[in-house]
Amino acid sequence: MLFRNRFLLLLALAALLAFVSLSLQFFHLIPVSTAKNGVSSKSRKRIMPDPVTEPPVTDPVYEALLYCNIPSVAERSMEGHAPHHFKLVSVHVFIRHGDRYPLYVIPKTKRPEIDCTLVANRKPYHPKLEAFVSHMSKGSGASFEIPLNSLPLYPNHPLCEMGELTQTGVVQHLQNGQLLRDIYLKKHKLLPNDWSADQLYLETTGKSRTLQSGLALLYGFLPDFDWKKIYFRHQPSALFCSGSCYCPVRNQYLEKEQRRQYLLRLKNSQLEKTYGEMAKIVDVPTKQLRAANPIDSMLCHLCHNVSFPCTRNGCVDMEHFKVIKTHQIEDERERREKKLYLGYSLLGAHPILNQTIGRMQRATEGRKEELFALYSAHDVTLSPVLSALGLSEARFPRFAARLIFELWQDREKPSEHSVRILYNGVDVTFHTSFCQDHHKRSAKPMCPLENLVRFVKRDMFVALGGSSTNYYDACHREGF
Q1: Which residues are part of the catalytic machinery?
Q2: Residue 331: how many CA atoms within 13 Å on its side-chain side?
Q3: pTM recorded for the entire structure
Q4: DSSP label at residue 149
Q5: Is residue 393 part of a domain?
Q6: What digits encode the pLDDT tens for the residues 68-99?
Q7: Mind naming one GO cellular-component term on file for this protein (predicted)?
Q8: Would the pLDDT of 39 be above 80?
Q9: Are 394 and 112 in contact (CB under 8 A)?
């Protein structure tokens, strides 16, 4: 009897300890503070590293895998979140193309063997992949702006061509499109079932990878869309500056930024040693190897789990990769501190941001055109926009990155319109320079449209210094 009582006591004690442990974990994970409007303070997800889930120090391999953005489970996102009395008016989506084959090769090595045909039973897979291929094969007569009409609508080479979108890249944007469909169409009814061509605005650069990425997202968003309603405009500039691309001061900022990058590289003796080792392995001058931008090819090997190349002199290995990637991360950190890139970004991003607020303002007037805008672009498109918005903590655009501007109307005050900014599903509205303090004065989980308009029309030029009050004067001011 004594033994039985002791056993029951121990059992009860163990159960109590387990309950306390689980309770502590539960209350650690679930926030207890709540904002005035009922939205949890944790709902504004951070874009800084999370100490619970990320390495305590910068890990170049971890950062590289985030950049790869390998499709796995469906991600959580904050798009479309707003109080019930807010109505979604329009959505403006900026994407980087999906995973691609390298633009450069490591000299005297075999190209990584990546298959750029789309195969349903090969990972990564998406349920709509076969239907996407079938639908693209019916669009050969689609009417796109020249020269887009001469580009293939989906990747289809057994050995990828340079810069070609891969199956991974297609799946990444099918996932993006389906996620946005679930939120903006099924939940918020942004477009009617009988949507018309003028309710979409589609624009892409003249690269097959951007056109195909845009089509993959669009197919996930509007499955089996009517080809007659789809028209992609061609954008010759990666900055999407249309007729406002000539900007001498912007180019001067870029030259100074490139000079900063060069000087930082000269100071990194470990980086130069690594380039020297790799150059000996592939038997070329160090300068030639550096010019071949080996990190681009090495990232492809990492993202597709392909071994780094070897020659009779040895193998390029993970330690080489870590040194080069670590330098990239250090370069991004110094870039934020020196702020030369910020000057380039403010002038580089102004035209596309100005187009966006113009589209938003027309929507506030009740216009029903261009309710969903999609810009299919590059890292060199998104990066200046992120920097110009003041999102200095945001990571460099990964493959299939998405930056979204949402325009909302307050049903209780129909004349009031607000915006939300989201980067890869994270609400970064209150990280932007034009709205970082607004939430301290308002319980609304978004920012007044006027703040964004004032930023684009005036504050972007104020941030550049000088007396310029418009884009043309800022681009041509003397004495910079």
Answers
A1: 97, 379
A2: 22
A3: 0.88
A4: G
A5: yes
A6: 999 986 677 999 999 999 999 999 999 999 99
A7: Golgi membrane
A8: no
A9: no
